[in-house]
Write a structure and sequence with these properties.
Layout: H1 3-21, H2 26-58, H3 62-86, H4 93-121, E1 124-125, H5 128-147, H6 162-186, H7 200-203, H8 209-232, H9 234-244, H10 249-259, H11 261-272, H12 276-305, H13 315-332, E2 336-337, H14 339-357
Antiparallel strand pairs: 1-2
Length: about 350
């Protein structure tokens, strides 16, 4: 195991502990923000390295599932904690985070993967059965959680009643659990990447069980540090957004992008190695886990603590979500991709970012 992959999690955890303990004036706050950003940059590649070690030990698609579920569970814990402490001021936090995650993954991450893979390999192939199935689940989950609340009439505004919220939470959890069962057991072959003889990592000897366990523990440390440091950078991001006069939704997008850095890095590495199926497993799996775990968790917290919860998207975001699902369906239906599809996804992602700043 490279020495830097052992040191990076320790340094990131130490910086997170330091940030949690120290408070001070603007000078100290700026210094801590810089140190946190550096530690975050160190933790991301370390997390990807340890995730790849675990993945190589247990095989695909379990490896990509480990990274997606681990960081999503930590992200859900972060959202729930912010909801509890923020009260009514954070009533749309879950909606904004889930929507930003879908847009970042389906347009930003997928677009970058297709661009990197297309420039290096011209054309890449993947299993249509797995990718289309994941997208179908994602469309159903997003519609139940983010679209229908904007059209129901039992409550005023883009909200659910308690009964409707309970149904959406249970349905989201059931759909995600069924997808994981299909991905890992029933039709596992749909999600296995084609073996590339030029990819040395695929054919390398699997790591020992002890090394895999160590990497898994260090992976959790890295992901906790990434999410915690992203949260610690939120005040600095809020000040920058306020100084620029941008809407508050930009803050959620910036934090979501920081939290998704490990998965993005891992997906790009896989695409560059001509393992686009692994990239799609990571990307779409993360989006599914984000909804499938976040909505049930926030539903329980909202009902238990009587906290308001806004889930329905506005008209602009609904159009962007529909456009994203349409172009993603067209991208995945052929089983082969080039930089042409990458350009479409990246332009839509740019439109999402631009309209978040200039609504």
């Amino acid at each position: 195991m490279p020495r830097w992959t052992l040191l990076a999690p320790i340094v990131a955890a130490a910086v997170l502990a330091l940030v949690s303990l120290l408070t001070g004036g603007p000078g100290l706050a700026l210094a801590l923000a810089v140190v946190s950003a550096v530690a975050l940059v160190l933790a991301v590649p370390a997390a990807v390295h340890h995730a790849e070690v675990v993945a190589h030990r247990i095989g695909e698609p379990f490896g990509t599932l480990v990274l997606a579920v681990a960081i999503t569970v930590i992200e859900v814990a972060l959202i729930v904690s912010l909801m509890v402490t923020g009260g009514a001021q954070k009533d749309a936090l879950a909606r904004d985070t889930v929507f930003a995650t879908i847009m970042i993954i389906c347009n930003g991450v997928v677009g970058l993967c297709l661009l990197v893979g297309g420039l290096r390999h011209y054309e890449q192939a993947f299993r249509v059965e797995g990718a289309i199935s994941a997208l179908a689940y994602l469309i159903a989950l997003a519609t139940l959680s983010l679209v229908l609340p904007a059209f129901t009439t039992s409550t005023p505004g883009p909200t659910y009643t308690v009964a409707q919220l309970a149904f959406a939470g249970v349905a989201s959890l059931v759909l995600w659990a069924v997808f994981v069962f299909v991905q890992t057991v029933r039709h596992r072959d749909y999600f296995l990447p084609a073996v590339d003889t030029a990819d040395e990592q695929v054919h390398a000897a699997p790591p020992s069980a002890r090394l895999a366990r160590t990497s898994f523990a260090l992976l959790i440390v890295c992901l906790v540090a990434v999410v915690g440091l992203a949260k610690s950078l939120a005040p600095a991001i809020e000040r920058a957004v306020a100084a620029a006069g941008a809407p508050e939704t930009v803050i959620g997008i910036a934090i979501a992008m920081l939290v998704l850095l490990p998965e993005t890095w891992a997906a790009l590495r896989a695409a560059r190695a001509n393992r686009l199926q692994t990239s799609f497993n990571l990307a779409l799996g993360s989006a599914l886990a984000s909804i499938g775990l976040t909505i049930p968790a926030v539903a329980v917290v909202s009902v238990w603590l009587h906290l308001p919860l806004v889930l329905g998207l506005g008209a602009k975001d609904l159009v962007l979500l529909a456009l994203t699902f349409v172009i993603t369906s067209i991208t995945l239906i052929t089983g082969r991709t080039t930089v042409m599809q990458a350009a479409v996804h990246l332009v839509v992602f740019a439109a999402f970012l631009f309209l978040a700043v200039v609504p």
